[in-house]
Design a protein that fits this description.
It is a single chain. Helix 1 crosses helix 3 (34-55). The protein has a 5-stranded mixed sheet with strand order 1-10-9-6-7, with no helix packed on it. The chain has a 5-stranded antiparallel sheet with strand order 2-3-4-5-8, with no helix packed on it. 27% of the residues lie in helices and 28% in strands. The longest helix is centred in the first third of the chain and has 22 residues, at 34-55. The chain has 5 helices and 10 strands; from the N terminus they run H-H-H-H-E-E-E-E-E-E-E-E-E-E-H.
């Protein structure tokens, strides 16, 4: 007597066998094969459990809770690899100086660059050596402020020549001292992310042109009290 396999009885229980094979397998059962009948009953119970599970729907409250947990602990977005030029987000020299202090000279320049979720805050200021400058910066992750950005290599280049290099501390801070040259840029290698390329703008005063103010226009804006003629008694 030929017995059928587990897979064939699973298909028979699900009703996916051909009509000819179904009739042959049913005849096999009708002759009283106990082992094949037990296998078929097992697969029928499995099919019944699967049908009941498909009809089960969890409460909406439980679904919302699970979705909320996954939203809080979702995996980070895949960061792009390779070198990326950073975008200048802020330059202190582009801001107008306050009235009354425009004549005061300052060589300190504050810059903020951004690439994806990373920001690099730079402060370029004169060094003790008059021909050098200090580049002080901090690497930040604005989407995850608690991320530790320590031990990140930071290198200063002029064209393809290395001028200085440093490693960030546990707060993501670094300092570089270098000669004041044109064409300087930073390479910041963030973990599992792109290499940030940041131009180092020179810490010199921008040229400001102030147009002379027409005295007549000023008088019209701030009219003084006209002298009156007093009639003598």
């Amino acid at each position: 007597m030929r017995h059928y396999s587990q897979e064939e009885w699973a298909d028979f229980a699900r009703g996916v066998v051909s009509l000819e094979k179904k009739m042959a397998m049913q005849s096999h059962l009708d002759v009283g094969c106990g082992s094949c009948t037990s296998i078929l009953n097992l697969w029928r119970r499995v099919r019944g459990i699967a049908q009941r599970e498909a009809a089960f729907a969890p409460p909406d409250r439980a679904v919302r809770m699970v979705k909320g947990m996954f939203a809080l602990h979702r995996p980070r977005k895949r960061r792009s690899k390779g070198a990326v030029s950073a975008t200048l987000l802020f330059d202190s020299f582009s801001q107008p100086k306050l009235a009354g202090v425009r004549s005061g000279e300052t060589a300190i320049r504050q810059l903020l660059y951004g690439v994806e979720e990373f920001h690099v805050d730079l402060r370029i200021e004169p060094n003790e050596d008059p021909v050098k400058v200090a580049v002080v910066g901090q690497v930040l992750n604005i989407s995850d402020p608690d991320e530790k950005l320590g031990q990140i290599p930071v290198a200063l280049f002029r064209r393809a020549t290395l001028r200085a290099e440093a490693i960030t501390n546990r707060f993501g801070e670094f300092r570089l001292d270098c000669l004041l040259e044109s064409g300087l840029y930073l390479r910041v290698s963030v973990p599992d992310g792109p290499e940030l390329r940041i131009p180092v703008l020179e810490p010199k005063l921008p040229e400001e042109v102030y147009k002379p103010t027409d005295s007549a226009r000023v008088k019209s804006l701030f009219p003084g009290r006209k002298k009156g003629t007093r009639r003598k008694d």
